[in-house]
Write a structure and sequence with these properties.
The complex is a heterodimer of chains A (111) and B (115).
Chain A (H helix, E strand, L loop, with lengths): L8 E5 L4 E6 L7 E8 L6 E6 L4 E2 L4 E4 L5 E6 L8 E9 L12 E6 L1
Parallel strand pairs in A: 1-9
Antiparallel strand pairs in A: 2-7, 3-4, 3-8, 5-6, 6-7, 8-9
Chain B lengths: L4 E3 L2 E4 L5 E6 L6 E8 L3 E9 L2 E5 L6 E5 L5 E5 L8 E8 L10 E2 L3 E5 L1
Parallel strand pairs in B: 2-11
Antiparallel strand pairs in B: 1-3, 3-8, 4-5, 4-9, 5-6, 7-8, 9-10, 9-11
The chains are: A mainly beta (111), B mainly beta (115).
Chain lengths: 111, 115
């Protein structure tokens, strides 16, 4: 699975958009970008995934650059409950269910 | 639909003892994976089971083992506990080995403390 690089921490004001970047310069053509988050003392929660097109669901939007070497997770209107560690994971979307977690980005949403 | 259920939520054991943790996946899910989370090492993959067969294993010593039953419920066992085994143990279930396989749903975890 391709390696990812994320900033260790980010701050965001409540109600503003949170833009979390992820670099995955060695991504292969058949690898997807997945985002999970982990709120303190809970299990990780799936957010969104994509291959090359931008994706949106009720939780977030995922923007993948044209060369697929980086992506951005966007929480359009961050709330205090979005404070969590966000993990960007790149892997093929078949076979094993194994997820390789990096250190992620600690997002702190403040009032 | 009930989520992934892990029992017990908290556990305290003594060095040298063994422990068994349980995971009930979401109904209909056939893949169960286990992860260990510690402050120093983060989230690390332990093993994955699908249809009662271990199909992937992380880099952990043989003291860590697991199994899956015909109803997809899974258990993991740690023998000869060490202080370093203190961690949050997380279980995740996935529907099957189709294209949805990597959208995993995690339980709340079992917090194991070894004293």
């Amino acid at each position: 699975d391709a390696k990812t690089t994320q900033p260790p921490s980010m701050d965001c004001a409540e109600g503003r958009a949170a833009n979390l970047p992820c670099n995955h310069s060695t991504i292969s053509g058949n690898e997807y970008v997945y985002w999970y988050r982990q709120i303190h003392s809970q299990g990780p929660q799936y957010i969104i995934h994509g291959l090359k097109n931008n994706e949106t669901n009720e939780m977030a939007s995922l923007i993948i650059t044209e060369d697929r070497k980086s992506s951005t997770l966007i929480l359009p209107h961050a709330t205090l409950r979005d404070t969590a560690v966000y993990y960007c994971i790149v892997r093929v979307r078949s076979g094993y269910s194994t997820l390789t977690f990096g250190k992620g980005t600690m997002l702190l949403v403040s009032p | 639909k009930a989520g992934v259920t892990q029992t017990p939520r908290y556990l305290i054991k003594t060095r040298g003892q063994q422990v068994t943790l349980s995971c009930s996946p979401i109904s209909g899910h056939r893949s169960v994976s286990w992860y260990q989370q510690t402050p120093g090492q983060g989230l690390q993959f332990l093993f994955e089971y699908f249809s009662e067969t271990q199909r992937n294993k992380g880099n952990f010593p043989g003291r860590f083992s697991g199994r899956q039953f015909s109803n997809s419920r899974s258990e993991m066992n740690v023998s000869t506990l060490e202080l370093g085994d203190s961690a949050l143990y997380l279980c995740a279930s996935s529907p099957d080995d189709s294209i949805l396989a990597t959208e995993a749903f995690f339980g709340q975890g079992t917090r194991l403390t070894v004293v």
